[in-house]
């Protein structure tokens, strides 16, 4: 089972190594947009939307890796001072009853919008924008799948460990 967990971790780790470059590209494009607008008086809606697309892609596709690296937002009211055994129980509960069901619900409720967007190849958000809103909406189920895969990986590891005494 740990081999399955390693494979699932590898998916999010590999994807993170590729999409991390979007952060740099996004900053450079935004810098070029600002320079173009305020120095040269040139403006491009498509370029502005490309920053939105890159930011969305970076955020949505890196969420699974963020969970893997344990860098996600955690409400530490009880967790921070809990014993390792209690932390393990909280993690298992959170994955099984909060994270996985919410990702499944988000996938279920967003799917009709994604499907309809692909059916009509939904166009730009603004006139002159990028004609690929259908790709942007596809990030929602991709986000859910990547987070669910990482959650399953973490659950495998949690159940494989002996409970700390």
UniProtKB/TrEMBL annotation:
Transmembrane spans: 21-40, 52-69, 90-111
Membrane topology: Multi-pass membrane protein
Compartments (UniProt record): Cell inner membrane
Limits of the Tripartite ATP-independent periplasmic transporters DctQ component domain: 26-159
GO CC annotation, single: plasma membrane
Keyword tags: Cell inner membrane, Cell membrane, Membrane, Transmembrane, Transmembrane helix, Transport
GO MF term list: transmembrane transporter activity
InterPro entries, per the entry: DctQ (IPR055348), TRAP_DctQ (IPR007387)
Chief place of localization: membrane
Binding partners and assembly: The complex comprises the extracytoplasmic solute receptor protein and the two transmembrane proteins.
UniProt function note: Part of the tripartite ATP-independent periplasmic (TRAP) transport system.
Protein name (record): TRAP transporter small permease protein
